[in-house]
Each structure stands twice: as structure tokens, then as C-alpha cells.
Task: structure prediction
Amino acid sequence: MTITPAPPSALPTRRTPLDLARGILTGAVIGSSLAALVVGTVLERVPLLVGGLAVPIAYGLLVLAAGAPERAREAAIVPRTTLAKIESLRATGGETSDVPVRFDLTVAPDGGPAYRVESTQPVNLVDLPDYKPGGIVVVQYPPHQPWAVKLVKRPTPEWEDRATAARIDSAPGPALTDERPSDGTVGGYLTLLALLLGAAGVVFAFRADLFGPEDHSDRPPSAAGPAEPGTSSTTIVSAASGTVALGPGQSLFDEGRLRRAVDSLTKGEGRKRQALTVVVQDRLLTVVFTPVGSQAPGFDLDALPYPRIPALVREARATLGVRSPQTWQLTAESLSGALTLRVGVAGADGVASLEANGHGEIVRRVPAR
Amino acid sequence: MGWHGYLALWCIVLGVVALVGYGRSLAGVTRGQRAVRVMGRIERVTEPRHGSSGREGIAVVVTFRDPATGQEFTVTNDGECGDRISTAWTGQEIGIRYPPGRPHAYRFTTDPNAGRSGLGWPNFAVFLIYVGLVVVASVDRGWPWALIGFGVPWTLLGATYLPGAIRDSRLRIEGLASGGPVPGRVIAVLKDVTVDEDGETATSHTPVVAFTTHDGTAVTAYRTVGLSDPARSRGRDLTIHYCPDNPVVFTPDLAAEHRSRVGEIAFAVGALLVGVAAAVAGGILIAG
Result:
């Protein structure tokens, strides 16, 4: 087979503005979603968490749907099979049994001008001796992408016979290549920039909640303390009462947190102090102590059924008919003699409460009304 | 919006997905339903080269005819083209599917009826809705509902699967024992080396067995189990038991095959009992 040399007719497409815009949008979606997940976790805002999951999924589906027509068009194109001559080849690395090999090929399409192309293909080490400079191989490529050449390692008998009998003259270079042009780096930087901007945008939008001023006096107890999540709390103890307010991202529901908060109010005391009342909210604990020398019916703080308290609150929130409860409060007192715990919940459906004994066993339920 | 609201949203979205999927299936427009499914014939089997890769399967040349145009195509299993062919002989029938009008996008399939209904995604959506409801019941009414939610469907699935599995195992063992053994040989051992993300190298060896059936069919097959020290098994002589109806089913060790099938049935029975235990325990805890 004698080939008339011809110059390369087409170069690989470079990144279009649409590709760049898509990259920037993808970066922004990834950055803002990750930031929404982190900020949502810190601020305990479920909508942010849901948004952080839903937006990338919706975006992925959108990209998938938008690309469907193009994929369908490309899938309908029948690849062109032809012969090619190996001008040179070199293994470019690899630690597996399939090594990447850079081929310099002269592709000789039937009825068309031959052209040079460079392409990297994985070749099994055992099969590598089959590929030598000057050898003829069977290749396939999409007609509209002549540089996207793929070796056919298992050709049909017809193409095997043609390859055995063929002789191909080398075409002059330069060779087409299947590698992306270098301006891909710019696109990568833009995508990274968009990712950072997306994340920064979400953090900026919630900066007040995340980095609000540390003014404890005029803020609600739940927001008191430093903004750093997970570690901060404010403790105020007097002779009559004690208060612990946790910072954002914490809860007295966390394992062992309530017990530590109570202990922080009584540490340094020579003896255990009795309490008249203990009131617990999500991030606020208030203990009213029995006055020294008083005969008022107090109770030992160690007597509280700490492990049962989260379950009691969950039970009250979930089973008393208050859908989407917005506030809850647990009160422990022993004014009537025995230690009694009451959990009240309030929401759009009204208020409800649950009563438990000193062992944390539920003794009474008052559903929403 | 409380968490019940999010769950409602979850169910609505997945419900829409399921409804659209079932609607498409009823209309017969899912990809699986529109795919053209034909049987091809293996015209040539190339003996695997010792030490080469087993990932792409045994090299075969297959012919099939497109029912729409009547045109005959000759193709090979080069690159990404569906299920790996791990047992082959000349004259063997093999399933082929492709989108209508695109026979060049052919894919080999060992189960020509797989995915024919196109109900995979809608069924998965219904499953996710069910999981959501079980989670709600467990949180609102207590964790024993999770046991019920898991145990009941698991038991039903197990009870449906087990009789068929027992019957298939019995037929398989009977089939393997019925034909009489033939000599076989490990003609090559294929080697695949992979490197994971931590840089750890893993090497897998796949012995290739060749045997000729009583009616003269020369079978070439990968054998990944049942051979000791597969890396050094090249040249080893074997005694092959095969199903005369379908030489794809064969074994070099009938006793080991029997033990393996019994083990599978025992595992299935164990899984069924786990489901029953979960359902019963959940029921007792709720009643108590």
C-alpha cells in the first residue's frame, strides 16, 4: 500500500470558553458545597447540610443531562478502522503488567491521505515484543477526531490478513497528538480559584454566626462564649446558682457533656452541694443550689440519671405529637420528696410534656394539646 | 422544616424517580428494553499467551446478524465490549446486545436477558424509600422496628432465593457427574499486576484450562478456583468433569465442587435464619 504524504489536516480542539466556564462553575459548586457542609455542621443548620449534599447532586445530574445529546451523537458515529505503521515507540513507565507505550504512527486511512500521530496506549509486557518499529498494526479512531487513535489488539481475521500483506510509507511530520494542549493548566487554576471563591462566599454569608462578637451580656445564653466550635463554654457560679452555656457546635446531649458541666459547677467544693432545681436546654444548664443551712428538700446532683436524659428528651420530642418541636427543656427537682424529671417540648402543634422518676423511667405523658 | 419534612422530601423525590422509571418501563422505552439482543457464534478461539493479562478475557472472533438490516458482522472482544469471556469454544453461542441501529456498539453478555425489563433504577428508588421509612419508624417508635424493617424483607428474599439455589446446586452436581470425566491440562497461567493507591503491588494468577468434550468440542476456559498453587500450575494434567449440556459448567475436582455448593447453601440458610431471628426479636420487643 503506497501512501501519498499529506500535512496534518486538523489539530486537537483546544479548550473553548464554554469548557472554561464549565470548569469555573464546577469549581464553584464543589467549593460552596463543601463549605456548606462544614458551616452547616458547625452551626447545626440542617438546611445547609441538605443543600451541601443536594446542590452537587443536582449539578451533576444537570451536567449529565446537558451532555447527553453530544454523547448520543458521538456514540452513533461508527469508528473508522485502518492500518498504521509504527515509526517508533517507547515505554513511558508503569509498574503494572500493562505499561503505557508512546507510539509514533503513520496512519493510512483507506482513500485518504496518510498522517502522523502520537498516541499513548497500554500494552501488556508479554505482548510488547509484538510491536516493533516498522511493524503494521490495526487502529481505530472516530472520523472527526483523527488524533484519537486506539490500537486494535485483537483485529478480525480480515484485518489481520490486510496487516500481514500491507506496506505503508512513512508520512512526514509533525505528528498529531492525543494529549491535551498546555492551556489546560490555566483552566485548572481558574477552577481552583472558583472553588476557593465558592467556599469563601458561603463562609462570608454566615460570618456573623461563625465569627460573631464575644459579647456575652446581650446575647442569648445559647450563643454565648467564643465562636470556636467544640470547645468553648461559659460558666458562672454563685452561692445560690450556677450556669453553664456552651458555645456553638456543642450540645449538652453530647456523651458525658452534661455530667462534666454539672461537675464544673461543683468543683472546688469541699462537699457535694445539694440542688433545688436543675434546668437543662440544648446548650444551657442552670442549677439552683439549696441554700447553706436550709432544710429545703434538695437532691444530690450525682443522683441524676445522666445516661437516660438524652433518651428522655428524644422520647418527648418524637412521641408526644409535637411535630417539628422547636424548643425543649428538662427540669429536675425533688420538691415533692422524690426526684422527678420533666421534659417539656413546644412547637407549632402546641406543648407537651413527659415525666420520669429518679431512675429515668417514664411515669407520665402529657401529649400535645 | 423538621427532619420529618426532609424525609417527606426524600420520599417524594425518590417516588417521582420510581414512577418515571416504572412509566418508562411500561411504555417500553428504557434502554434495556430498546436494546437489540441477538445471539452470536464464536468462530475462532485464540489460545491465551502464557503470562499475558486475563482482564480482557479469552480472545474470540464472533459473527452475528443484525435483525434490522440482515447484515452480518464479524467482531472480536477487543477493549471494552461487555462481559468478560472466560470460557469459549468454536461454535459456542454468545449473547450480544447493542442500541438499536448501532451494531458497532456491541457488547457481549453471558446473560442475554439481563436488564431486559429496565426496572433496576426504579426498584432501587423504592428500596431507598423503604429504608427511609424504616429509619423513621426506628427513631419515632424505637429500634426494634429496625429489626422488623430488616428482618421481614430479608427473610422473604431468602425464602424466595433458597429453593431455587438448592435446585440449581443439585442440577449442577448431577450434571457434572453425568458426563464422565475427560482429560484436561493447564495450558497457560495469566498474570495481572496492579498497584493500589498506597503503592502496594498485587499480582493475580489465572490458570487457563483446555479440555475436549466427549463430542469433540475443544473448550478453553479460565479457572480461578479449585487449583492449588495456580502460579505454578502450567502444564498440570487434570481430570475434568463437565455438564454435557453446557461445558461452561466444569470442575477439576468434583468433591470440592460438591463441598463448595453445600457451603453456599449453608450460608444461604444461615442468612435466612438471621432474617427470621431479627424479625422475631423485633416482634417480641415491640409486643413486650
Q: What stands out?
A: The interface with chain B takes residues 46-47, 50, 75-76, 78-79, 95-98, 124-127, 150, 152-158, 314, 318-319, 323-325 of chain A (CB under 8 Å). The helical segments of chain A are 17-43, 46-76, 157-165, 184-205, 207-211, 257-266, 309-319.
